[in-house]
Amino acid sequence: MTNRDASLTNELARERNREAADRTLLAWIRTSLAMISVGFGIERFGHAALSFEDRLAGLSPFKTRVFGASLILIGLAATLAGMWEHRLVLKAIATDDYRYAERPPIARYMAMAIVAVGIGALAVILSGS
To answer: Within the chain, which residues score under 50 in pLDDT?
Structure first.
């Protein structure tokens, strides 16, 4: 393999990594939009349910607002984390001696936050108050 072939191979690999980083950022954005939409939906559903004559047991404007806002905040945090990770990857790819480096497991942190909100919601539903 000549030096020119190696250089072309490296540039093509960088381009593939750049495109993968862009796809990952888009996945974070889609996930964030879903979380924000579900959070907004929970808040709106709670607001609509409270307008019924026979209110649902254990439901209050505060509870639905807190759980809706929690998902919206997690969605915003996921967007910011995805943007931060994307910037780091692009910065690393731009270096001449690019090597893979471990990064924080952002998806795991987001999953833990969603589990915490879910456990809180479950506790509220089971308490019935």
So the answer is: none
